[in-house]
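User: Run a structure prediction on this.
Assistant: Running it now.
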Amino acid sequence: KKVRPGEMKNRLSEIRCNKGWTQAMLARRSGVARSTITEIENGNIVNPRINVAYKLCRALKVDVWDIFFED
């Protein structure tokens, strides 16, 4: 999927898998719906809401720029 200017790419799946977590585990630990996590990882959500990004970062114990970045 081609990323348009202003859209973010992400390393969510890579970071999650490096911790040995499933999407369901991340969903439980973050409070973010598994379907939302799937959509972010698949690139269907390219600009997640700040509260979603915050919850994911807090659960994974990483900085927002570790997950989300502009290409």
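Strands lie at 9-10, 68-69.
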